Amino acid sequence: MTLTFFRTIHPTIHSSIFNQFRLKTSYINVPKRTTQISPLLNEITPELAEVNLKDPFLFAVQRKSSGMLPIYRQYKNGRTRTITVIRNIKGNTNHFVQLLSTVIPSDRIRLIGTGSSIQIVGDYFWELRKWLTLHKF
User: How far apart, in whole angstroms, are the C-alpha atoms of residue 36 and residue 75?
Assistant: First the structure.
C-alpha cells in the first residue's frame, strides 16, 4: 500500500520481523534546498589582513578547547534565513566590528548582549573562518 503526498514524498507501510508496522518515507524526488549567496564587500586576501590589522591586541577571538573557531550557523524561519554567529570575542568588540565591516556589509552585523558575541545576517561561515585564520586567530 503506497500513499502519495505532494507528488514527491512517498510514504510506504513496512512490517518488521516482529509483525510491527511502521511508516517509511522516501524523499527521492524532493528538490534540494538552495542557499542564498551572501554578498561580500571585498575579496578576502592576505594583503587585506595585513593592512587592516594595525593594533593586534585590541581584541581576540578565543578558540574552543578542540581548536576550532567559535563560528556557528543558526537557521530561522524553516531554514529559509541563515544567521552566522561569532562567539568568545574578548576585548574591544567595536574595533572588531569595524574591521569586519571592511569585508561584510555593516548593516548585516549586530552585537549580542554584553558584546562577546556578534550576529551576522547571512551565511558567512566559510568567509569568516578564512578571514579569522588570515588574522592569525
Answer: 13
pLDDT category at 86 given cuts 50, 70, 90 is very high
Mean pLDDT of the chain: 76
Distance separating alpha carbons of residues 133 and 124, to the nearest angstrom:
14
- Rounded to an integer, what distance in angstroms lies between the CA atom of residue 89 and that of residue 116? 5
Report helix, strand or coil for 15.
Answer: strand
- Rounded percentage of the chain residues whose pLDDT exceeds 70: 62
Helix (H) or strand (E) holding 73, with range, is: strand 71-76
Question: 127: closest CA among 56, 74, 71?
Answer: 71
Dist CA 78 CA 81 (whole Å): 8
Contact between 90 and 117 (Cβ < 8 Å)? no
